[in-house]
Amino acid sequence: MTTPRDLMIIAVDVEPSRPLEQGDLSLALAGAELIDLLAAGTIRLDGIQVMPGHGTALSDPLLDQAAASIVREAPYESIAAWLWRRGRSLASTYLASLEAEGLLTRQRRRWTWTPFRTGRLMPVDSPDRHRVRDRWASQEPVLTALAMAAGIGGNQETRDAPSGAGDAAETVLAAVHDAVRELEAVRQRRAIEQAAFDNVWRGD
After folding, report:
1. CB 1 within 8 A of CB 95
2. 11: which of 28, 95, 103, 167 is 20 to 30 A away, CA to CA?
3. Using 50, 70 and 90 to split pLDDT, how confident is the model at 154?
4. Which residues, including other chains, have CB under 8 Å from residue 36's CB and lie 6 or more apart?
5. What is the number of helices (H) and of strands (E) in the chain?
């Protein structure tokens, strides 16, 4: 299992502190991929620039896909640029992958919380689920920060990257939190613009 896979399991296994937004979760998953690629030596950071590294091939198809998409010649991408590009619809990609592998199952009950479409996805009872729960219960810094960015655990006031993750990982985590805040600002601006538009048509 990988950090983004662990995060996806947490996203469907833990009651969120607020309704989950696919965009927030997708940005957090893209950040999780970067952190795993850093750990594998597949990439390195030069300030906020994502640079190719010399790590070996990875054993996870989605991480391999992420590694293959790294810009390998100047001008290199910034962390923020990577998050926005790679994060597009990434939550749906991970949901589909884990469901296809049988790690998630869909429960069709009207009263359950629904993440993204009809029928709540739940992790199957497996060693992977227990391991992820142990990691979550231990408040492991990276997973905790990514989950908080996605809206799982904590609240808006505490959604800052915790210390203890290592300098490079903390740089990525900070970028994830910044991107999520930027996305929320865009949502709020669009909501205000839509409300003003509706008022015009109603004659308010």
Report:
1. no
2. 167
3. low
4. 2, 3, 4, 58, 63
5. 8, 4
Assess whether pLDDT exceeds 60 at residue 203.
Answer: no
Q: What is the pLDDT of residues 67-121, one digit of tens each?
A: 999 999 989 999 999 999 999 999 999 999 999 998 888 776 544 444 545 567 7
Token pair of 19 as six digits:
């309704």
* Nearest residue to 85 via CA among 96, 71, 75: 71
Spatial separation of the C-alpha atoms in residues 177 and 159, rounded to whole Å: 7
> What distance in Å separates the CA atoms of residue 108 and residue 112, rounded to the nearest whole number?
8
Q: What is the spatial distance between Cα 64 and Cα 61, in angstroms, rounded to a whole number?
A: 5
pTM, entire model: 0.83
Which tokens belong to 86? 């790679």
| Positive or negative torsion for Cα 115, 183, 150, 16 | negative
Q: Domain residue spans in the chain?
A: 3-202
